[in-house]
Amino acid sequence: MFTKAAVLTALTAATLAVAAPAQAAPAVAAALPTANMEAVLKAAQIDPRRADDTQTPGAHAGVLLVEQALQAKGLLDSKYVDGYFGTTTITAYSQYQKSLGYTGIDASGLPGKTSLEKLGASRYTVTSAVSAGSRVAYRGVTINTRTKAMLLAAEKIAGFTVSLTQGSYNPGGVDASAGTHDGGGAMDISVSGMSAATRTTLLKALRNVGFAAWYRTPDQGFAYHIHAMAISDPDLSSGAQHQTGDYYLGKNGLAGRGADDGPSVTKVTWEEYQRG
After folding, report:
1. Secondary structure in 3-state letters for 191-242
2. Is the pLDDT of residue 15 over 50?
3. CA distance 4 to 8
4. Which residues does residue 216 pair with via DSSP β-bridges, in sequence order?
5. What is the pLDDT of residues 157-203, one digit of tens each?
6. At a CB cut-off of 8 Å and minimum separation 6, what does 106 contact?
7. Separation CA 177–CA 60 (nearest Å)
8. How many of the other CB atoms lie within 10 Å of CB of 199?
9. CA distances from 63 to 6, 16, 49, 101, 120 (A)
10. In 3D, which of 214, 194, 199 has the Cα closest to residue 258?
11. I need a surface site. Which of 44, 77, 115, 226 has the fewest CB within 10 A?
């Protein structure tokens, strides 16, 4: 038999249970948009070299996020927030890099993973990150581990090894190089003893793994050699950025911007080659 007190206690508990508001489910934070670094890097090399405002395929969304972030920091006027990584955006990005304390090739306007992530804090996340890797001494020159891996892959395709006459991170090393070896991704290859057919085989192999590569001659103002730039190396110097952009646009990488005189291949980056 229930006592009066027990009945009242049960009724009170039931009333409170009905009256108590339901606890709201915790809010789920909206996912941030993503900026594909591979696409942004490619646009930053090609777009500034275009004669018009054609955008690099697949890069619009990522470039737009970067430009919006630059605008928010007061570094880029709204009229340039358009998904086209032209010279004005390059300058704005360089200013941002300098604001982080970067200098030299680290403030060239070519986005690196760290600066991209800092710029995108609370705005976007970075996907498909590209790294130059560490600097290594290899075959008498300095290159980075990404460039080394690319060279070894090209040699495997070509079926022979090569000698390097100039590497990367070599500011002021060779006047004729016009600063293209100041940063990463650059190398010159000896062609001593190579036949024309062998040179073509090597050029194709280099291009197939992601190098912008050309045969240089005395008529162009150089000693005979093959000049190769690793496309989308985040450490590229400004001059090297221009060469890789021109390569995509069918140019020869020289100041006169003549037609590409190398073998025709499907243009890819190292990352694209690795994915097959």
Report:
1. CCCCCHHHHHHHHHHHHHCCEEEEEECHHHCCCCEEEEEECCCCCCCHHHHH
2. no
3. 6
4. 225
5. 999 999 999 999 998 777 767 789 999 999 999 999 999 999 999 99
6. 97, 112
7. 32
8. 17
9. 70, 56, 16, 23, 12
10. 214
11. 77
